[in-house]
Each structure stands twice: as C-alpha cells, then as structure tokens.
Amino acid sequence: MTREEKSKYIDDLAAEINGSSVFYIADTAELTVETINTIRRKCFQSNIRLRVVKNALLEKAMDRVEGKNLNELKQTLKGGTSIMFSEIGNAPARLIQEFRKKSDKPILKGAYIDEAIFIGDSQLATLESLKSKEELVGEIIGLLQSPAKNVISGLKGASSKLAGILKTLENK
To answer: How far apart are CA 143 and CA 117, in angstroms?
Structure first.
C-alpha cells in the first residue's frame, strides 16, 4: 500500500468513525476464513459493517476524528482487530454473543455508543442488554398510554352510572 493509499484509507476510516454513533472493536485474530466469512454474512444480514483493520492505521484514523474522545479505545489496539459499525447499539454485542456459543472469539476489546465508552470483554453482557432508541421510545409511549387508557375506561364505566343517576334525579 502506497503512502497516498494509506492516507486515503485512514481518511475514509476516520470519516466512518466520525459519522457513526455506534462502533465496536473486536479481536478476530486466529479465526478460520470460514468463520470470518460467516461473521461477515451475519453482519451483513444484521446491517452491521465489519472491517478488519491494522491497529496503526486505526489509531491514526482515531486521531483524525474530531469531537470524540477515543483515547481509552486506542489502548485496546493490540493483536488482530476488527471494527463493527452499526445503527443499533446492541446489535454487534448480540452477534458476538451468538458466535461465542461456538467459539472463544470474537473477543470484545471496546465499544463506543453515543459518547459512552465500554472497555473489555466483561462489558459484553451489559452491551447486549442495552435497548435501542426505538425500543425505549416504544416503552415510553406504552407507559404514557397506560394512564390515559385507565381514565378512558373509568369514564366509560362511570358514564352508565352517571346516566342512571341523572335519570333518577329527573324523575324526582
């Protein structure tokens, strides 16, 4: 790779990191080609972009990203590294957990989700349990609808009683 190609690759990677609010850094070293291809297929199906990167180039790309403090993630750049970009915060964690049922890897090195940084494989369960924005919005709407439904059903039930009381008062 020439110097110009490396510079363009770093710029493209920096732009992708800068434009993404969710990315995971994982260790996929020593996995077979068949396993990596299976991971790539699952990533594609889950709308996750997977890139195998060199640590030095990823570190340079992280240095070029503005507005995000990625210093903690730079410390995880040892060994084979893949970066997973996603729109949904817990999708890569679920994919990693699925593969961990059959193999020791991929191992989570770190994750960046909406300005929060998670370091280490021990954070995988936490990341998997995160809810997406759509799930949170759905829960909030459900919570807001619940009291309104109770009031409406109470009024419907009380309306027949109220009509009976008014009729009784008219007769007197």
So the answer is: 29
> Could you tell me which of 97, 81, 118, 103 has the C-alpha nearest to residue 34?
103
Q: Give all strands (DSSP E) within 70-133, no chain letters.
A: 81-85, 107-113, 116-119
Q: Is there a single domain that holds both residue 114 and residue 141? A: no
> Same domain for 104 and 147?
no
pLDDT of 138? 81
Q: Are 40 and 99 in contact (CB under 8 A)?
A: no
* Residues 88-123: tens digit of each pLDDT: 888 899 999 988 888 888 889 999 988 888 998 888
Distances in Å between the Cα of 91 and the Cα atoms of 40, 57, 70, 71 are: 14, 25, 21, 24
Q: Is the pTM of this model over 0.70?
A: yes
Q: Which residue has the tokens 């490396």?
A: 6
CATH number, domain containing residue 64: 3.30.70.1730
**How many domains is the chain built from?**
2
Amino acid present at 8: K
Q: How far apart are CA 118 and CA 111, in angstroms?
A: 5
